[in-house]
Amino acid sequence: MEGFSSLYQLLDYFSTENVCEEYLAFTRWGENPECPYCNSKRVNSLKGKTKRYKCYGCRKQFSVRVGTIFHNSKLPLRKWFIAIHLCASSKGISSHQLARELNISQESAWFMLHRIRETFTQSERKLKKRKVEIDETLFGGLEKNKHKDKKTPNNQGRSTKTKAGILGIIERGENKQVYAIHVPRLDGNTIIPIIESKVAKTSTVYTDEYRPYRRLRANYTHKFVNHSQGKYVIADAHTNTIEGFWSMLKKNLVNTYHSISKYHLQRYINEVVFKYNNNQIERFDTVLKKAMHVRLEYQQLIMKK
């Protein structure tokens, strides 16, 4: 398949549960099923209403769902595929809306969405292009919008006392990729090691005047603009690209979700980054391929560190 450009096309192709199971099996193993327990290829298909397999290496039976985001789920794969398409192709969908669309409980929809977001993890490899923009932003309520007795002292500027700090790195040019991560603090000791792990040395980096960025001069060509003086573009130095991504990120999150906890924020960031970095038609199959290697249990999801 070349991908699904619409929900109608998806539903037209996945007309039955059996078609969904066969598509998932081919995505996972190709023509030769493999045991998820012992990796043996001595596997045969069993007869029955649901497609199951038997391994003649470890003698265990299994379905194509074992070890994936669909593991132990009682929901039909057809509903899962609809959820993946809606989550990956839209600007964002809440658990309440998904529950209405699939006729399931809000709790099941919430768990389903987080398991899908688990496939949106970002690559840890360095960015390929040699010109990148770097910036940081805060996500959360503004102090000026709070009642006087609700305001937090010394919470101005880049403070993360009541807001979440996010660091972003974006490439310039065609087919640009973005990397964004929730960080506990926005000081130099926190953000500089992250930048060095994602940006190749000798690259040109563009930032604002934030003091910790000066440390980048040791390994990079560093160009910056001084926003506090009203200077936003100096020759090729600007951060307009990453600022545009911040605008999209916040609109997607604020306009879709009632509230987001810091504990789950990275998953929501990963969702927006995934949509920015991947072509819409290819997203469904990309998620499905990643889903083969991801498993998230409910207790693991709600267990705060």
Automatic annotation (TrEMBL):
What does the record list as coiled-coil region(s)?
Answer: none
Q: Can you name the source organism?
A: Fluviicola taffensis (strain DSM 16823 / NCIMB 13979 / RW262)
Check the record and name the InterPro entries matching this protein.
IS1016-like_transposase (IPR053164), Tnp_ISXO2-like (IPR024445), Transposase_Zn_ribbon (IPR024442)
Protein name according to UniProt: ISXO2-like transposase domain-containing protein
Question: What is the phylogenetic placement of the source species in the record?
Answer: Bacteria, Pseudomonadati, Bacteroidota, Flavobacteriia, Flavobacteriales
Q: Ranges for the ISXO2-like transposase domain?
A: 126-277
Q: Which NCBIfam families match?
A: transpos_IS1595 (NF033547)
